[in-house]
Amino acid sequence: MKAIKNGKIVLKDRILTGKALVFEEKILDIVDNENIPAGAEVIDANGAYVAPGLIDIHIHGYLGEDASDCKPEGIRIMAEGLVKKGVTGFLPTTVTIPREDLEKVASIIRSMMEESKTWMGSTILGMNAEGPYVNPKKKGAQNEAYIQKPDGDFIIKNSDVIKINTLAPEMDKDFAEIKKIVTNSGTIISMGHTDATYEQASAAITAGIKVITHLFNAMTPLNHRAPGVVGAALDHDVYTELICDTFHIHPALFSIVYKLKKDKLILITDCLRSGGLADGEYTLGGQKVFLKGIECRLEDGTIAGSVLTLNKAVYNVLEHTDMTVYEAVNCASLHPATLLGIQDRKGSIELGKDADIIIADEKFDIIKTIIGGTVRYEA
Fold first, then answer.
1. 174 in Cβ contact with 199 (< 8 Å)
2. Is 270 noted as a catalytic residue in this protein?
3. Which of 69, 172, 195, 270 is catalytic?
4. What count of Cα atoms within 13 Å lies in the side-chain half-sphere of residue 18?
5. Per-residue pLDDT tens over the stretch 126-159
6. Global confidence as pTM
7. d(CA 249, CA 222)
8. Which CA distances in Å does 222 have to 194, 225, 231, 241?
């Protein structure tokens, strides 16, 4: 048994002080600091935040590795790096790659999920396939050579591991493949890299789309005569991903989007292999990517992902909005857990849930990461 004392415990609707969090593999109790059970191993938070572990549902790479490389060791390196940023669970995310590579990544992720529950890194919760069913007009940094027509059978076949799939609904006639996927599997369909109109996007949401991939980026914009996918996202009850690196999205929009989306807002990183590394040349889906500061671009200047970490996304939101700490943390923990259907065991500090816990300072730099009651990282 362990207990964390002297921390600011971040619950989903408030912050507790003067209390201790007691846990084993699961969260057992919240007690007064003076009432910690005898014999418990005590961790002193020294006034830092004690928050639920963060969940990154959209991350391509980190520390020189990329999920699309089809390398198990690369996934391990990503996981070992992410745990230092407070991420207790993640979906390694592919870009638009050849079908055989996508199938290979699915097989690798499938084989590693059980192992990841006990290694010294973040836990793999499945995978996210961003593409290859996207619109060439809004491909962004996706490689057009590998774009395919939507294939519901492939997604259904791999739905045990593919938790989210991004596609452009206008490329799916009568939304037949979307309907097939949502009817025959638990895979969540996200709308992205799309040239859909507001009307098409709204109809696709009715057909079963539950998420909007990195809102504002690679989609039809909000215009007063043509509200586009952005308008549909803000107008409908769908989850919306947001890359809060202050480059992809102007910070003034953080608060605006939160006020409209509330518990449907999910912070993501969209991080590339250049994350955690120095400025220079890298690759994405067979294309050159150049990192300078927080900007990743293809040779033609197209924006290509980010080097954001999820703990820094939380900090950026706190810096640029009047959101409370628990509201910002929810967007990186409870909301993604709820989307994935695992909110009964992850995403918030509640009795009976998995002891996935982080201790973070005022800048949300990570002091300690605990997964399933085991300390996986200490600064």
1. no
2. yes
3. 270
4. 0
5. 999 999 999 999 999 999 999 999 999 999 999 9
6. 0.98
7. 14
8. 13, 9, 5, 16
